[in-house]
Amino acid sequence: MKKSFLLFAGKRKNWSIPYIIFLGFFVVIPLLLIVFYAFSSRTGGFTLANFQKFWNQPEAMHTFIFSIGVAIITTVICLVLGYPAAYILSRMEAKTAKIMVLLFILPMWVNFLIRTLATVALFDFLRIPLGQGSLYFGMVYNFLPFMVYPIYNSLQKTDKSLIEAAQDLGATPRQVFLKTILPLSVPGIASGIMMVFMPVISTFAIAELLTINNIKLFGTTLQENIYNGMWNYGAALSLIMLILIGLTSLLNAEGNAKAAEEGGLL
Amino acid sequence: MRKNNLIRLIQSTFVFAALIAVNCFSTQVQAQERNEVLKIYNWADYIDEDLLTEFPVWYKEQTGENVKIVFQVFDMNEVMYTKIAMGQEDFDLACPTQAVMQRMLHNDLLLPIDQNFGNTPNYMNNMSPFIIDRLDDFNAKGKNAAEYAIPYMWGVSGILYNTEKVNKSEMQSWGCFWDQKNKGKMLMKDSYWDAYATAAVWGYRNEIAAGKRSVYSVTNDHSQADINLVEKELKTLKPNLAGWEADFGKEMMTKGEIWFCYAWNGDAVWAIEEAAEVGVNLDFAVPSEGSNVWFDCWVIPKYAKNTKAANYFLNYICRPDIALRNMDVSGYCSAVASTEILEAVTDSTLEETYNLSYFFGPGNDSLRVNPVQYPDKSVVDRCAIINDYLDKNDEVLEMWSRAKGDNLFGGMTFMIIAVIVLLAGWIILRQAQKAKSKKRRSGRRK
């Protein structure tokens, strides 16, 4: 018995069992419940009515599209702001870069709700009216570090000799950037986009606080349905969102695979 | 290999068994102690929390039994309702607003309240007839609401406004919310009950003035035509609003960022007091078109496990001195209308008098009280109580979602399509390039 236990505990694979049980309870079962609720009516029978309702009711659909739009805009702003920042960081001396990265990460030590409430107070103080503008500010402010960090990481890992080789072979600085540095940082960009785009779609607290409930994102629609006891419709909406997020990460997986392949080619 | 699998299976069965055992054990412990626990689910800032430690002492004196209070708060009726109706949580006491109490009664979610307290005096008889009579509106399925609910606090809805920014006369009509010139300077409550009632009263103001319909009828008929009109009114209202407020209206008013907001009178009592301390003058008005009167009541949900302590707690908070303490904390008026309460709220330094015969009984028609907290009879007379939407609930919620949501504009859709097209184009381009380079490579290899 003791021997078999040792055998059991000795296998590194077995150490993952607690985590697998955890995953099962808190990820797989809830997901199955979402699917179950989404395809059942209030009385419990199988139905597609929840999805028909989404299709027939323009406002839920509009909110969904609007949220995607907000997510895209936020992602683009984060990329435009984040890439140069990450590039400059990666070019710095290691010591300075460390401090700068720390400064970037520092706000993340505070819970995002507190950060957003502080942003509201700041806007109040500066007498800037809350609205669409403040929404984008809040989104970018909260998610920018998620963009900077992966890009910084991939730029950091870039083999300097490749850049030198490009320079030796007569590439102009512009060509060096476009043909060497940028393609090599694609995995970082891809995971940065993922880290920003996916959570923004389902965020609701930032929109509620920074626009005084004026702008409704898809997360709020979900929350309203769950609060009002319409679990089936709410589950259907969640499923739709999950599918979209799933599709985006597939796209990313493809991008990553491609990047890896290209890395292999070189 | 096979043995290993078997062991793993046994092992995980053990883990499961252990989990289940722990679970059973803890529920058993809970079951043993459950009759010594009283689970209360109430609105935030709605009770003097010292009472939560004082009640067990009183309960021990009265019954010789121990009880420990577990207290939780909610900020939306719907959250409370969903937790009890769908989550089947075993709260012993909850405090819904009248319409949600009606829904709970209608859906068989309530237990009757036992008013048999042995030697302990029954304090529940001090309720104002004004509130008790209204309970009859909510009888459902042959059940008397009065046997299932104990009214707690009540109030009216109106407009809280900054006297320096707007005219008092303008605030006597809901029209100020629909007036373009106040754009961006007002807040509406983020509650579909209040928004519906307000939009209905404003939308049907001419019919109400002409006597064709009553405030009660426009608030509670929920016909398709009514719902459509409310939707239209809310959609015109939305662009005027600075936002939909949950609990930060008072703060924004005090800072002068907004000029007026929809408010319940109890909140207004507090806001006026607090603003006065920083030199801002706020006041409260109930528009002339009519408004709504509401009350929150204590109920014992179906899944309650300690109904005895729950009944005693209800009796305890109906005791006039306890009711007064809760009034001080919340700013609202208790449904209790005993002489102790009347004495405590009378302020002889006030000049104007108000008719409160409807609440404190005949003869009390010229009292010196705070008219925001205790509105005059003329105000209450033009207010109707809000009933549950019952079978129309989904339609009203959908309407509310339509009225409140939808910020989509053409440019956004165009941008998304553009991004998708660009992305697709990029992927196709990459695939084509890859195919080309593969061809080249294979060509070279030959």
Gist?
In chain A, 80% of the residues lie in helices and 0% in strands. Chain A has 266 residues and is mainly α. Chain A folds into 2 domains: 2-38, no CATH class; 64-265, Orthogonal Bundle (MetI-like fold), CATH 1.10.3720.10.
Write the layout of secondary structure elements.
The complex is a heterodimer of chains A (266) and B (446).
Chain A: H1 2-10, H2 17-38, H3 49-56, H4 58-91, H5 94-105, H6 112-125, H7 132-157, H8 160-168, H9 173-184, H10 186-202, H11 205-210, H12 218-227, H13 231-265
Helix pairs in contact in A: 2-13, 3-13, 4-7, 4-10, 7-10, 8-9, 10-13, 12-13
Chain B: H1 2-34, E1 37-43, H2 51-63, E2 68-74, H3 77-85, E3 93-94, H4 98-106, E4 110-111, H5 129-135, E5 149-162, H6 175-178, E6 186-189, H7 192-203, H8 205-209, H9 215-220, H10 224-237, E7 243-245, H11 249-254, E8 260-264, H12 265-277, E9 282-285, E10 291-301, H13 307-317, H14 320-330, E11 333-334, H15 339-345, H16 357-360, H17 377-381, E12 383-385, H18 393-404, H19 410-445
Parallel strand pairs in B: 1-2, 1-3, 6-7, 6-8, 10-12
Antiparallel strand pairs in B: 4-10, 5-8, 5-9, 5-10, 5-11
* Overall SS class of chain B: alpha/beta
The CATH architecture name of the largest domain in chain A reads Orthogonal Bundle
As for the number of domains of chain A, it is: 2
The helix fraction of chain B, in percent, is 40-55%
- Oligomeric description of these chains: heterodimer
The number of helical segments of chain B is: 19
Overall, the morphology of chain A is globular
CATH class of the largest domain in chain B: Alpha Beta
Shape annotation of chain B = globular
Number of strands of chain B: 12
Largest sheet of chain B: 9 strands, mixed
- Major β-sheet annotation of chain A: none
Distance between the termini of chain A: 53 Å
Q: Largest interface, per-chain counts?
A: A-B, 41 and 45 residues
Count of distinct structural domains of chain B: 3
What CATH calls the topology of the largest domain in chain B is D-Maltodextrin-Binding Protein, domain 2
